[in-house]
From TrEMBL:
GO terms for molecular function: carboxylic ester hydrolase activity. GO terms for biological process: polysaccharide metabolic process. Signal peptide: none annotated. The active site is at S186, D272, H302. This is Acetyl xylan esterase. InterPro entries: AB_hydrolase_fold, AXE1_dom, CE7. It comes from Devosia soli.
Length: 324
């Protein structure tokens, strides 16, 4: 297939035109304050597995508005002192899956948490978290759920879940608060950028082929869903384009990147027709932290680097967290 987007040198020179809303910071601080005030109960129950060297826990914690969110927590059984933490978020349509599929971070000495994704988890792996909040008319999928009002938009709830997961984990005595990383691929990378942009306690972020970045360009450039959900919505709601893109500014990875001082390891696939590479570069070039790196996979589509990028992450984070 041909390259679907910009190539170098135009790709490396690309800068996003997304503008930061004037009340961006207050919108997110108010959102988090409301959800933290809602309270909720944390439960950690040993998971039923055959694992002998890893402890696995089925976790429920309060997310947006105190609503229950699930996740798996994995810890190395042989551990001393506080552990560095990796929180992973999941790609579009996926769920938390099974603990035995999620071993490489815990097996490398990290505390590892995989947060479930509310209202998804049936597209390619199983989830266990509902989204109890209703929505105005929308296209199937979540990209347009509540998109006419920033207070109702689906990703307000999901990004808040991500920060509340960090809240919950930093309350645990086995976590080193100075070594907190977030990561994820596609939608998970977009969530990771949002959490790192909202929460200064995050010291490292590793977004792989991140989704939810540079919406205006993505919607006009992507060749496949999920961005095309927004296209189909606007094809019917012809008078709502300005309103939709105004909402999306509050959830754009470019704006979260502008807020983060964490260390960052991005990846991009130059043949990606789901998350166009220019949108990934839009977030990367906007990223405020000085310690940032991007790894390119020239001949890959949205699968990106796969296990090659996993290996890059292990080495990169290990150096920064003293685990190399």
């Amino acid at each position: 297939m041909p390259f679907p987007d910009l190539t170098h040198p135009a790709l490396g020179a690309y800068r996003s035109s997304v503008e930061m809303p004037g009340d961006f910071a207050s919108f997110w601080s108010d959102t988090l304050a409301q959800s933290r005030a809602a309270g909720g109960k944390v439960e950690m129950v040993p998971a039923e597995t055959s694992l002998k060297l890893i402890e696995a826990f089925d976790v429920t914690f309060p997310g947006f508005d105190g609503q229950p969110v699930k996740g798996w927590l994995l810890l190395p059984k042989a551990r001393e002192g506080k552990l560095p933490l990796v929180v992973q978020f999941i790609g579009y349509g996926g769920g938390r899956s099974f603990p035995h599929e999620l071993l490489h971070w815990a097996a490398s000495g990290y505390a590892y948490f995989r947060m479930d994704t509310r209202g998804q988890g049936s597209g390619w792996s199983m989830g266990a978290t509902s989204d109890p909040v209703g929505t105005t008319p929308s296209i199937p999928g979540v990209m347009t759920k509540g998109v006419l009002d920033k207070n109702d938009y689906y990703y307000r709830r999901l990004f808040t879940d991500g920060v509340r997961a960090v809240d919950m984990l930093l309350d645990q005595d086995f976590v080193d608060a100075e070594r907190v990383a977030v990561c994820g691929g596609s939608q998970g990378g977009g969530i990771a950028l949002a959490v790192a942009g909202i929460d200064r306690r995050v010291k490292a972020v590793m977004p792989d082929v991140p989704f939810l970045c540079d919406y205006p360009r993505a919607v006009r450039t992507a060749g496949r869903d999920p961005y095309l959900e927004i296209v189909r919505f606007l094809a019917q709601h012809r008078d709502k384009s300005a309103q939709v893109f105004e909402t999306l500014r509050y959830f754009d990875g470019v704006n979260f990147a502008r807020q983060s001082n964490a260390a960052a390891l991005f990846s991009v696939a130059l043949m990606d027709d789901i998350c166009p590479p220019s949108t990934v570069y839009g977030a990367y070039q906007a990223f405020a932290g000085s310690d940032k790196t991007i790894v390119e996979y020239e001949f890959n589509n949205h699968e990106g680097g796969g296990p090659f990028q996993d290996r890059e992450q292990m080495k990169w984070l290990g150096k920064r967290f003293g685990m190399a």
